[in-house]
Specification:
By secondary structure, this protein is α/β, with parallel strands linked by helices. It has nine helices and 18 strands. The longest helix has 18 residues.
Length: 409
């Protein structure tokens, strides 16, 4: 494989007008426009007809992460406001679901907005539960890069941190929407199949799916399977360097169940289609974990895929996708692991050869983004023609925008 690190990000720019960014979702999730690219042809439809455009032997892979109410707004007596944005548990080795179930206190890595105005030892905010009033306290502990470790403590001892966030936190909308969250966003900036708390951004390709969509998929005999990648704030980080080798890819937590891997192996020869870039990165990371097992590099029983692993010569060992999955299942059986966890920093760039994904359901992505680079890896230079078509035909862009179905070139 040619080393793609010298890719110039300016080649992945396009003229997106502010008016083409969807600020709000449509009234009905599945009524967004759908752009299909297959066999060198562009077709347009609406999302509710997606199952009609999928091969009957498809396996759809979903990311069932759930967006948390990550923003907590503290009002000071002076009238100024300080925002604490929860990113991840301070101890990122802990199971995030266990951290969410902690009571009375916990520590998180957080962004702090208006930090210079935080002069007090701690901030407080009241909230209500069952007609009683309680208080949460936030205390800065240590600075970590551009964030802080914050200790939260609350006197509603019957409530977990997850329940406290639901009561007083705000859903974190993407910065490019340039508006405050509304009550409707609590539902609409969440997939209907969201299950595992942990993301600060939605896997937006899944926002179009409804119960009716899943019923139509089932009637066609299409298999649906779930994995979990908790989307971090880094997903919105633009590539600011001239070439991609100077960009640091964000790392995200990943959880893949034994039964998912078994299903994937049983259907390895089917048309595997990922729903969203997060599902794609998770699935492809699984292959490189198998490669590391093959080479005897796994020592801590966790997935740990680094930014450039897929492009390192030592990992180009021609291991088949089937063999990689067999190695992983054997590893999990031997070590009595039911859920494979860890993190992935994997970056998928033009020139990458997909190991599993033969297609993707996705939205339209920001110019000069790592997400657009992934789409280019699947479509080749054709992405430019497709995006130009969308710009000229009133498609709505980004998180609340319209959808696409692309098949691997």
């Amino acid at each position: 494989m040619t080393d793609p690190r010298k890719i110039n990000i300016s080649d992945f720019d396009y003229p997106l007008k502010d008016s083409q960014i969807a600020r709000f979702p449509l009234a009905n999730r599945d009524q967004s426009k759908l752009l299909i690219y297959k066999n060198q042809e562009i077709i347009t439809d609406i999302f509710s007809n997606l199952p009609q455009h999928l091969p009957s032997d498809s396996l759809l892979v979903f990311n069932n992460t759930k967006v948390i109410h990550a923003r907590i707004l503290f009002a000071k007596p002076s009238g100024s406001q300080i925002e604490i944005f929860c990113l991840e548990p301070a101890d990122n080795k802990k199971d995030i679901q266990l951290v969410f179930q902690q009571r009375e206190k916990c520590e998180w890595k957080c962004f702090v907005g208006n930090n210079k105005r935080w002069k007090e030892p701690f901030l407080t905010k009241t909230f209500e539960d069952k007609e009683n009033t309680y208080q949460i306290k936030a205390e800065r502990k240590t600075a970590v890069e551009n964030a802080w470790i914050i200790e939260f403590s609350w006197n509603a001892t019957h409530l977990s941190f997850s329940e406290v966030l639901d009561k007083l936190g705000v859903i974190p909308l993407p910065p490019y929407l340039n508006r405050e969250a509304q009550d409707t966003d609590n539902e609409r900036y969440q997939t209907v199949y969201a299950k595992q708390n942990g993301s600060v951004a939605a896997p937006t390709a899944g926002l179009h799916f409804t119960d009716n969509t899943f019923e139509a998929l089932q009637q066609k005999g299409i298999i649906c399977a779930n994995l979990t990648l908790h989307v971090g704030a880094g997903t919105f980080k633009p590539v600011s360097s001239e070439t991609i080798d100077q960009h640091t890819m964000h790392s995200e937590k990943i959880y893949i169940e034994y039964d998912f891997i078994k299903t994937l192996l049983q259907n390895i020869n089917k048309t595997i289609i990922t729903v969203g870039t997060t599902s794609t990165r998770s699935l492809e990371s699984l292959y490189w974990f198998g490669v590391k097992l093959h080479l005897g590099e796994i020592v801590n029983h966790e997935i740990d895929i680094l930014q450039w692993d897929a492009y390192q010569e030592k990992y180009q060992c021609n291991l088949t996708a089937t063999k990689a999955l067999e190695l992983i299942l054997n590893f999990m059986n031997t070590n009595q692991i039911s859920v494979l966890s860890g993190q992935t920093q994997m970056m998928i760039l033009p020139g990458y050869q997909f190991k599993f994904a033969k297609g993707i359901v996705t939205n339209f992505h920001q110019p000069k983004s790592t997400l657009l680079l992934l789409i280019s890896a699947m479509l080749g230079e054709k992405w430019k023609e497709i995006y130009q078509y969308a710009l000229e035909n009133d498609f709505r862009f980004l998180s609340y925008g319209d959808s696409c179905l692309f098949f691997n070139k």
